[in-house]
Design goal:
- With about 100 residues, the chain is mainly alpha-helical.
- The protein has one domain (about 5-100).
- The chain contains 3 helices and no strands.
- The chain has helices at about 5-20, 30-55, 60-100.
- Helix 1 (about 5-20) packs antiparallel against helix 2 (about 30-55), helix 1 (about 5-20) runs parallel beside helix 3 (about 60-100) and helix 2 (about 30-55) runs antiparallel to helix 3 (about 60-100).
- The longest helix has about 40 residues, at about 60-100.
- The chain is globular, with a radius of gyration of 16 Å.
Length: about 100
């Protein structure tokens, strides 16, 4: 039932829903619940699946495949704050969060 595809879709849905709900947050508590916990749960699902699926499907060059997979996650973590900063300057925080959520 819960294969890589379904878990990744659930993680993607949680990330988008958490970011989308964060754009309507009117308090720090609501922002913490939506962005930190809901979005964080989705991210943890996706990052775990990325590492696990890499180990399952690549047998000959496991080390190389895992390093490429985790490097991609790390690059996203480094680039994402710059994208958010640019979007906040252009559209304010709620607009930037809506754009990132894909709305």
């Amino acid at each position: 039932m819960w294969g890589y595809k379904n878990a990744t879709l659930l993680g993607t849905f949680l990330m988008c829903a958490g970011i989308f709900m964060s754009s309507f947050a009117d308090s720090v508590t609501m922002m913490t619940v939506t962005f930190r916990f809901i979005n964080g749960l989705g991210y943890s699902l996706i990052s775990t699946i990325a590492c696990t699926a890499t180990l399952v499907y690549f047998t000959a060059q496991r080390g190389l495949a895992t390093s490429i997979s985790t490097t991609g996650l790390g690059i996203g973590i480094v680039i994402f704050p710059f994208i958010i900063a640019f979007l906040v300057e252009q559209y304010l925080l709620s607009g930037a969060l809506l754009i990132v959520a894909g709305e």
